[in-house]
């Protein structure tokens, strides 16, 4: 908890480094409680840090932006990092723990939307929604006749990699489409046994046995390139990869090559290496569905995420317990 208790937070206004842009409703709340230093839009971030680094006690960031270690090192009085997102792989958690810096995230509130987008992408891909709309829009329906047949969703075998909150939400949705479900995770989960979801302790084996592989695991060193060439080959020419986790979980060069060679059937992706500057090779492929990392990007969910992030920051500087601490 913050040691400063004498004045109210709105009077005191701690200095906050903002690593990411937020909707106006969140910025207004942050502005009324903190002196904001927008790093994400600064023309000279080095100068900003040189001038205010010592004063900054809070950081607000997103799952993707996190807090680079070299910036963290320049904030000697940092007390809390609040993440607008569930993933905390872009923050050095061990270093935060070592320095006694609190870290919060926004779990639960985004689970349903992320699972919904994973399903939406899978369904759009099997039913070729994007191509079919183009067919109608460009007048080909009237000129060329029937659209090529697409593929059924019902009954496709789903593999889930990482059966946390989001993985479970995807599994439940797949169940409603009569899709047999198997999963790969660090350990077997009771919720899976209760629902008849099969545990496979080998990712290549899981990829071999399913039609569509959903990536819903956390990013970071432990899961880096867990989906490698072998996994992609096992998923195969009729297989589909859906990624709503982190790009780092997939060997992207291997993915691009497999899609180009059609040794992997299809990929529906919400996350990319170096996003938003994705590899231009993706744009040349006809067997991909590309989304701008917006699985949690609905008004409802982003409002809930923003509120939770702000509530964590305000709680901390009001000497109240954190709502959703990571550490
Ligand atoms: C982003 C995410 O935080 O929850 C996460 O970990 O990656 C996302 O929800 C969101 O895109 C805001 O930048």
Beta-strand content estimate: 5-15%
Outline, from the CA principal axes? globular
Briefly, what CATH class of the largest domain?
A: Alpha Beta
Tell me the name of the CATH homologous superfamily of the largest domain: NAD(P)-binding Rossmann-like Domain
From the alpha-carbon coordinates, what is the Rg to the nearest angstrom?
A: 22 Å
| Structural class by SSE content | alpha/beta
Q: Report the uncertain regions.
A: none
Number of helices: 14
Bound ligands, each once? 2-keto-D-gluconic acid
Average of per-residue pLDDT values: 97
The total domain count is 2
List the strand order in the largest sheet: 8-7-6-9-10-11-12
Largest pleated sheet: 7 strands, parallel
Report the count of strand segments: 12
CATH topology of the largest domain: Rossmann fold
Question: How helix-rich are the residues, as a percent range?
Answer: 25-40%
Query: How do the helices and strands follow one another from N- to C-terminus?
Result: HEHEHEHEHEHHHEHEHEHEHEHEEH
The CATH architecture assignment of the largest domain turns out to be: 3-Layer(aba) Sandwich
* End-to-end Cα distance: 12 Å
3D structure, described in words:
The chain is 38% helix and 15% strand. It is α/β, with parallel strands linked by helices and 327 residues long. The protein has 2 domains: 15-109 and 300-317, NAD(P)-binding Rossmann-like Domain (Rossmann fold, 3-Layer(aba) Sandwich); 111-290, Rossmann fold, CATH 3.40.50.720. Strands 8-7-6-9-10-11-12 form a 7-stranded parallel sheet, with helices on both faces. A 5-stranded parallel sheet has the order 2-1-3-4-5, with helices on both faces. Helix 2 packs parallel to helix 14, helix 6 (111-126) packs across helix 9 and helix 11 runs parallel beside helix 12. The longest helix has 19 residues, at 299-317. It is globular, with a radius of gyration of 22 Å. The structure holds 2-keto-D-gluconic acid. 2-keto-D-gluconic acid is lined by residues 20, 62-64, 84-87, 110, 293, 296.
